[in-house]
Amino acid sequence: MVRGKTLTKLTPYLFLIVPLIIYLIWVIGPMFYTFYLSLTDWDGLSTPNFIGWRNYQRLFKDPVFYTSLKNNLKWVLSFITIPVVAGLALAMALNHAIPLEKFFKASFYSPLVLSLVVCGLMWSWAYHPAHGLINSALRLMGLDALAQGWLSDKDLVMWAIIVVGIWRQVGYVMVLYLAGLQSIDPSLVDASKVDGCTGWQTFRHVIFPLLAPVTVIVVVISIIDSLRAFDLVSVMTRGGPFNSSSVLANFMYIEAFNNYKMGYGAAIAVILFLISLVFIFTYLWRILQTEMEY
Amino acid sequence: MTAKKFFSSPWRTLGFIALVGVTFLWLVPVLSALVTAFRTNDDILLHGFWSLPRQLGLSSFKDAWERGGLSRYLPNSFIITLPSLILTLFFSSLSAYALARFRFRGNRLIFFLYVGGTMLPFQVLMLPVFRLTDALGLYDTYWGLIAFHTAFQLGFCTFLLRNYMRTVPGEILESARIDGCSEFRIWWQIMMPLTLPAIAALATLEFTWIFNDYLWAIVLLRSDALKPVTAGLAALQGQYVMDWTVITAGALLATIPTVIVFIFLQRYFIEGLTLGATKG
């Protein structure tokens, strides 16, 4: 009997042991190890030497770091506004039975199925200065002055890439809001209509507040996604021209794997991690709150 | 509402037309890639993008497949994706069961470790994982990449499956326990069949995620012969700088598997997306 009891106590650990060890070795452990590496001069080959905070001191004087930080900020601000508003608007429009509803929905979330590499390539072609879809269309309409080197102009390039990110994100936000709308009790909406609310008032005072939990999740996910931005930049410009489209993730990759300054790369990663941490905790906090409701 | 009734209101009709316009704009990049891939490079360079195609053909696809290396890259993607998918679903269903069905010390801490881990920026794991694969002799092999995908996706899968398993009524499991079933049999023969809808949704989503991964493929692989299609396409872009018909053809070929999954398992894909975000 005693043996049976210890065994029951051990059961959850038996289930957990293998996956948890894998997770600790490949995910949690590396996270801490990056902190250590950021204090070394590791080049990827020789043994890392401890050099204290020197990587960070260099980083805070590096102009590319500030460019990347600013670009990440542009990315975050665009991501928490445009796709959220557009996704919500589409969800509201497509939450009714309208003709071709399925086709519309599929059109907006289909970019989600494409890899970011494919999205980046398709758009690079659309942005092509001489033969691309956009510039040729502008020239065809006689708007030659508007034709740009979308990916070679240092003031335009970041926005040109962010547009691609937004293009892919809108469908995701729409899906989340559609699911949120499904869970709203229709009688609440009907009641507000009976009380004489206009469509906009119903949305503003009934539907939108009820969607608040979805909005929080959408915003947090959007921020985390925009801090992760790497693939599009890597495929479309590699951060160029002259680092004008560099983002932290891409900056880190280039320093670590192209310039073999892995210690320095680790320091960039740590800064990126610290920025993300705020939002990771926000997310965990929300989950903790829903846990309490059980 | 029937179509006739729907269009009886001019406002609705106007809104509908606007929606059609926006949707068309949305699809333009994809349509443009499609049109490009079936044309020849000379035709586009000579007559412009908006000219009527002089000839259409599959030669760009053939180029991308044979000389571009898609015939190697695409199978590689499956060799990497399928084992990762199966392993991560297997392991996460184990840990999810423990977290969903047992009270024990550290339950919540482990759960938060899994959830928090899924949101990490990849850069913070990159160098140690690179070093680890190197130390284990897994650098530049399929298995290094498979091991990492399996481990990293555990976080999200455990999170999702654990939440789903909590909704299974306890009486079913309790009666099996009274009948003397071992916990492993309860997990495999009772819990797993009941969790199948969630696993299907998760598998669809994870398939596209792992299949579409680019960053880890370029970090953990060096040989061109092992590259999955995402990394292969990036290499193709460097090689065919001037020939966009081949690049777009390659990009389209690369999307076929995920598009097939999406067409046939669309419902599960959408379910997976929303399960992850709204149940949290």
List the helices and strands and how they pair.
The complex is a heterodimer of chains A (294) and B (280).
Chain A: H1 2-37, H2 54-59, H3 63-94, H4 101-113, H5 116-126, H6 133-140, H7 157-182, H8 186-194, H9 199-210, H10 212-228, H11 231-236, H12 248-258, H13 262-293
Chain B: H1 3-6, H2 10-38, H3 41-47, H4 59-66, H5 70-101, H6 107-118, H7 123-135, H8 142-165, H9 170-178, H10 183-211, H11 215-220, H12 229-239, H13 244-264, H14 266-278
Helix pairs in contact in B: 2-13, 4-13, 5-8, 5-10, 5-12, 6-8, 8-10, 9-10, 10-14, 12-13
Number of strands of chain B: 0
**Category from helices, strands and their pairing of chain B:** mainly alpha
Overall body shape of chain A:
flat
CATH architecture of the largest domain in chain B: Orthogonal Bundle
What's the overall average pLDDT of chain B, rounded? 89
Q: Do you know the CATH topology of the largest domain in chain B?
A: MetI-like fold
Please indicate the count of domains of chain B: 2
Distance between the termini of chain B: 34 Å
How does the helix and strand content of chain A classify structurally? mainly alpha
Poorly predicted tracts of residues of chain A: none
* Helical segment count of chain B: 14
Unreliable spans of chain B: none
**CATH topology (level 3) name of chain A:** MetI-like fold
Distance between the terminal alpha carbons of chain A, to the nearest Å?
33 Å
Quaternary organization: heterodimer
